């Protein structure tokens, strides 16, 4: 998956629905207006691999299953997913370096066509207080940087983080890691369950390669127009 060369290619709509007909309609409307389509747990648990195949016929698929288990199990899951040829795949950085390394080794079996492996750092729905309640003091930025270092050293190609950590990650790790950024809200849109947010333009200006946007697009009366408006808002 090459880095985006146009504003529209930076956009990854999250197709979060359990309804295959709705997913197909959204994918058809958005495929030409984005860099990839994100298929996550809601659709995958409802429809499984056939949903991935249907979407892959229209655009590169970002398969967001956030794998998080012992290394042997995650490696097996990656092997099972390779025939679906996802362009990008997520796993939780909190699974530790051995888990990331096992995923990378399994993915290498697909050769040059292997998925980009993205380590999710700290979920964008978590604020400092919630993170502290789970036992992680010091705030999201420190934890994101800690998990980012472990994941990149273990073989992750990139990271998923909130827009609020992007600049710090670029400072610490430079341009090499691919950065995929959810928790993005165009001005005037409710944050909902997202805790660490910024606008699409702010995320890209800080150094995001791709932005992931779900409800502001999928909940719009005209999803294609909403996607186009977001792409137009991005810095060149
Ligand atoms: O891995 C992700 O894509 C992800 C990581 C994260 O920390 N936060 C996050 O919101 N996401 C995903 O990004 C999408 C955000 O959707 P909206 O909040 O509707 O824009 C959802 O599909 C989430 O599963």
Automatic annotation (TrEMBL):
Coiled coil: none annotated. Keywords: Decarboxylase, Lyase, Pyrimidine biosynthesis. It catalyses: orotidine 5'-phosphate + H(+) = UMP + CO2. Residues 10-230 form the Orotidine 5'-phosphate decarboxylase domain. The active site is at residue 66. Pathway: Pyrimidine metabolism; UMP biosynthesis via de novo pathway; UMP from orotate: step 2/2. Substrate binds at residues 16, 38, 64-73, 124, 185, 194, 214-215. It comes from the Bacteria. InterPro entries: Aldolase_TIM (IPR013785), OMPdecase (IPR014732), OMPdecase_AS (IPR018089), OMPdecase_bac (IPR047596), OMPdeCOase_dom (IPR001754), RibuloseP-bd_barrel (IPR011060). SUPFAM superfamilies: Ribulose-phoshate binding barrel (SSF51366). Its EC number is 4.1.1.23. NCBIfam families: PRK00230.1, pyrF. Homodimer. Catalyzes the decarboxylation of orotidine 5'-monophosphate (OMP) to uridine 5'-monophosphate (UMP). PANTHER family: OROTIDINE 5'-PHOSPHATE DECARBOXYLASE. Belongs to the OMP decarboxylase family. Type 1 subfamily. This is Orotidine 5'-phosphate decarboxylase. It comes from Paracraurococcus ruber.
């Amino acid at each position: 998956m090459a880095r985006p060369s146009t504003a529209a290619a930076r956009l990854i709509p999250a197709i979060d629905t359990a309804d295959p007909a709705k997913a197909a309609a959204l994918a058809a409307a958005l495929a030409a207006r984005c860099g990839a389509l994100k298929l996550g747990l809601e659709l995958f648990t409802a429809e499984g691999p056939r949903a991935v195949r249907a979407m892959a016929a229209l655009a590169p698929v970002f398969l967001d299953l956030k794998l998080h288990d012992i290394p042997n199990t995650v490696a097996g899951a990656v092997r099972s997913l390779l025939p679906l040829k996802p362009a990008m795949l997520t796993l939780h950085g909190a699974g530790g370096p051995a888990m990331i390394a096992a995923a990378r080794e399994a993915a290498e079996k697909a050769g040059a066509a292997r998925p980009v492996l993205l380590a999710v750092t700290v979920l964008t729905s978590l604020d400092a207080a919630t993170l502290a309640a789970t036992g992680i003091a010091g705030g999201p930025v420190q934890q994101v940087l800690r998990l980012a270092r472990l994941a990149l050293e273990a073989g992750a190609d990139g990271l998923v983080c909130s827009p609020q950590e992007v600049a710090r990650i670029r400072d610490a790790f430079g341009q090499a890691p691919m950065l995929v950024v959810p928790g993005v809200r165009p001005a005037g849109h409710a944050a909902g369950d997202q805790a660490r947010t910024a606008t699409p333009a702010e995320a890209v200006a800080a150094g995001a390669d791709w932005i992931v946007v779900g409800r502001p697009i999928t909940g719009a009366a005209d999803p294609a127009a909403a996607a186009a408006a977001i792409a137009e808002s991005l810095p060149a």
